[in-house]
């Protein structure tokens, strides 16, 4: 990436006609507009681009006027910070006026608008996120971001402590972006600054904290970043449940995901680094304001008892029927990952891995059977509605489960008749 750098051949999305029309409209009459940030970074790295953001010298009201004159829809989503969402060709583009931070409190900033591209770059967090691209693909690098991409190095722009004090979320973003784009060891000065200022994380909303943690846990391999977070005591600050627990299990899980073709699962990865304690998981979910489904999954995983690798499929089917299917799948995946990691030089672990693999495959194809009887079947036999009917039905269901679901409707009705006569 030495010399002049261009996105030519690296970013088909840049040539899309609606984006080109929008850039042209914003750059007309002496103004300027460039693609900014993550889209440029990902194109240079060769990773997919999900969102395209634009920086412009146009003031927000002028951005709206020009976009609407070009036939696009403009939505003032963050106009106080200079951001307008333009819908062009059915796609949203966040367009933000060049700006500088004039006051920060560690969570939010007051900004002033300007026309200085260097000032706009300097207010951003990391060098790899402060790149711009002209409409023709020419990359504008004012902070050394291209060289850092080439070296897979993550650096704060300027003084790391100053950048962090502007927004303490940047501590978590440092580890998140390192997980996605970094290599080797994290930047030493950045790491030290994160460790020194970790108390500032307490100022952040829990929603922002979990959002960053989830993105970090979604990286192809978050294990190195998590270990450095623990080293800097940052992980304990936001996830105290991980302290003195088996965080090293994340290595085994990410290897298993890669080898077995599992889709990276941030909640499963979280389960790999926290204890299966239902009470603590409830507290964790409440503290980070998990969704109902996320909190429920974490709780069910903690409540699900471990499965032994020699368990028969029939016995597992009984447990699956009575328990939470996702909880068992999570338990089995983590057990399989751990056994595979130990199987390198341990024959017993190799056998365990085979057992867990067999059980996981069975759980994947298992469908919960439907109990053949209902209360109406017992009333037909003369039972009166009430506690005895319910208890009889429950006992019959337990017999059916213990038979391995082999008892058919006729056999169950016969047993029901006998039970009601006694």
UniProtKB/TrEMBL annotation:
Keyword Magnesium: yes
Domain Poly A polymerase head: 33-155
Superkingdom classification of source: Bacteria
CDD domains linked: NT_ClassII-CCAase
Domain (tRNA nucleotidyltransferase/poly(A) polymerase RNA and SrmB- binding) ranges: 190-242
InterPro entries found in the cross-reference section: Bact_CCA-adding_enz_type3_sf, NT_sf, PolA_pol_head_dom, PolyA_RNA-bd
Name of the featured protein: tRNA nucleotidyltransferase/poly(A) polymerase
């Amino acid at each position: 990436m030495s010399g002049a750098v261009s996105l030519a051949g690296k970013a088909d999305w840049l040539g899309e006609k609606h984006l080109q029309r929008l850039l042209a409209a914003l750059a007309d009459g002496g103004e300027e507009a460039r693609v900014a940030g993550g889209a440029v970074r990902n194109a240079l790295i060769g990773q997919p681009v999900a969102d395209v953001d634009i920086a412009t010298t146009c003031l927000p009201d002028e951005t709206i006027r020009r976009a609407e004159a070009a036939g696009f829809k403009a939505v003032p989503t963050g106009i106080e910070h200079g951001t307008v969402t333009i819908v062009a060709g059915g796609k949203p583009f966040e367009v933000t006026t060049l700006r500088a931070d004039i006051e920060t409190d560690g969570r939010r900033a007051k900004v002033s608008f300007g026309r200085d591209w260097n000032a706009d770059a300097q207010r951003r967090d990391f060098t790899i996120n402060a790149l711009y691209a002209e409409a023709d693909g020419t990359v504008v690098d004012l902070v050394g971001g291209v060289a850092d991409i080439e070296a897979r190095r993550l650096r704060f722009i300027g003084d790391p402590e100053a950048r962090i004090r502007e927004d303490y979320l940047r501590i978590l973003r440092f580890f998140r972006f390192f997980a996605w784009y970094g290599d080797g060891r994290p930047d030493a000065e950045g790491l030290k600054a994160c460790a020194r200022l970790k108390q500032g994380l307490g100022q952040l909303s829990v929603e922002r904290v979990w959002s960053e943690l989830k993105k970090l846990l979604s990286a192809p391999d978050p294990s190195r970043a998590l270990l450095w977070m623990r080293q800097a005591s940052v992980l304990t600050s936001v996830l105290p449940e991980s302290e003195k627990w088996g965080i090293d299990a994340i290595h085994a899980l990410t290897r298993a995901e890669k080898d077995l073709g599992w889709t990276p699962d941030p909640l499963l990865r979280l389960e790999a680094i926290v204890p299966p304690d239902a009470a603590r998981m409830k507290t964790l979910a409440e503290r980070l304001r998990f969704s109902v489904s996320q909190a429920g999954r974490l709780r069910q995983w903690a409540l699900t008892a471990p499965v032994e690798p020699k368990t028969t499929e029939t016995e597992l089917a009984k447990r699956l029927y009575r328990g939470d299917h996702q909880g068992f799948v999570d338990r089995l995946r983590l057990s399989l990952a751990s056994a595979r990691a130990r199987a390198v030089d341990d024959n017993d672990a190799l056998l365990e891995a085979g057992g867990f693999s067999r059980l996981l495959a069975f759980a994947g194809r298992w469908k919960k059977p439907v109990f053949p009887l209902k209360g109406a079947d017992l009333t037909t036999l003369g039972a009166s509605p009430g506690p005895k009917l319910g208890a009889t039905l429950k006992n019959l269901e337990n017999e059916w489960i213990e038979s391995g679901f082999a008892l058919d409707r006729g056999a169950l009705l016969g047993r029901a008749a006998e039970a009601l006569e006694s």
